[in-house]
Amino acid sequence: MQIQITTQCTKPKHGWTLIELLTTIAILAIATVFVVPHASSGASASGQSATRLAVTDILAAQMDAVANQEFRRIHFFSDGSGWCVEILQSSQLSTAYNAATALYAEDVSESQGQNQNSYIDFTQDYRFTNISIDSPLFDGANPSVIFDQTGGIIAPDGSPSTGGRFELHSGDHAWQVSLAPLTGKVTVSKVGSP
Length: 194
What we know:
Layout: H1 18-41, H2 43-68, E1 71-76, E2 82-88, E3 119-121, E4 131-138, E5 144-147, E6 153-154, E7 164-170, E8 173-179, E9 186-192
Antiparallel strand pairs: 1-2, 1-5, 2-3, 4-7, 5-6, 7-8, 8-9
């Protein structure tokens, strides 16, 4: 008895068939319709970036107040275009913000050409063209928050602060940044999205 074994060699397949190629193109086209409008709008990404920048400046002002044993005030501009960090003396706590006489804290990492001052103006920065700060309210009536030498927040009369919040808007997206009474602990929550 003789067993005969035969083998067939098949040529390895190179490339895609026309059906596979058309199916892949159709799937990519459908995905593009859904993904590209959200990715290219950038409202969410730009808002998240601006919110991170605000929180970073708040925490930096808090640490700077402790490190230098001075007062730091973060003032939010009334037109919603940004904020600045000022160095205050104890006699200046209740003095209103004045751009002409303000002594700004130094910011070597994000100065936007403001002579290395901690001064953020969204209208001067192409990354944040559609960003606005809305409803900054601290201690029930102030558009500013003051950090003392312990890193806590105080009211303009020097008493412990009742805290406050502001909202940052970017297109249809919004984030609320809150500072807890007394300690100034920062919390961020997303409050609006399409």
